[in-house]
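pinned: reference chain
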Amino acid sequence: MVSEIKIEEALSLNLPIIDVRSPGEFEKGHIPSAVNIPLFSNDERAHIGTVYKQESKEKAVELGYKYVNPKLDHYIKSSLKIAPDGKVIVHCWRGGMRSLAFARHLSDNGFSDVKQVIGGYKSYRNLVLENLSIPVNLKVLGGYTGSGKTYILDQLKELGHQILDLEGLANHKGSVFGGIGQLEQPSWEQFENNLHKELISLNLNKPIWVEDESHKIGRILIPIQFFEQMRNAKLYFIDIPKEERAKHLVTGYANCDKELLVNSINKIAKRLGGLNVKNSIKLLEENKYYEVAIITLSYYDKYYLKGMNKRESESIITIPLPSTNHYENALKIGNDYKI
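pinned: its structure tokens
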């Protein structure tokens, strides 16, 4: 039996979700917990779309059945791996023919409880964008590059505080060096979906720590409605000596491919200055990572300060810290700024 279900209820149930859209659609953006069992491949979907436009709906449907019929057994076997108890949620783009045909096929072949999402993935995206506009009690952790803000967030979480790791969700550390050693970044749409998943798992009435970011993390844009909340929230700026921050950067980047580091330095050549770029690359070849870090921090500190000056001074709380000891720093921040 196939029954309809709203996206809000679908997300609240502990049931596997099958996304029957094409691999290309799925890659662009999907419900984080969903598994892709495409009804059509990318090429098949494109072919059907062409026939629909150039010939007729009837011809397109006929072609669809031609592509689907040889894969009927595959759909059942793949779905059983995901939902061995026969209970599953299915969706496509708008809750139309694709998901209904797939759901009925499962129901006709032994699945006891098959639910089709009303409005499909489109209804999910509407929910994501709506929820990202809900007011959140944010506490923004700021600090110059090399302060170890991400590590502090991790420690705050261990200490029982709520956190959102935007850089973790974006697979990027924010600077031109931020993509080194990271997985490929998700699409901007998938980033929003992942952010939404994290948000709804938190208590939005209680404080949530988040790292201060520019609007862009690598090639990912933070949703504007959420970014504006970050900009309007109070900033807790940790002020750590440059020398300590340089040491921290060395521990993070000294084992990286030098060519990647050189490429990153060249990306900020115009702002860093020709002589600084030349000296940085020479020092890098001599394994003098600390000296390279000091040079690049001169640029990043100015860049961050420029952004911080756009905030109202009364919204900034400066917290002097002697080192990048993440546990001690998290302990102090968590204890002194609970509210």
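why pinned: The CA atoms of residues 39 and 120 lie 14 Å apart. The chain has a mean pLDDT of 92.
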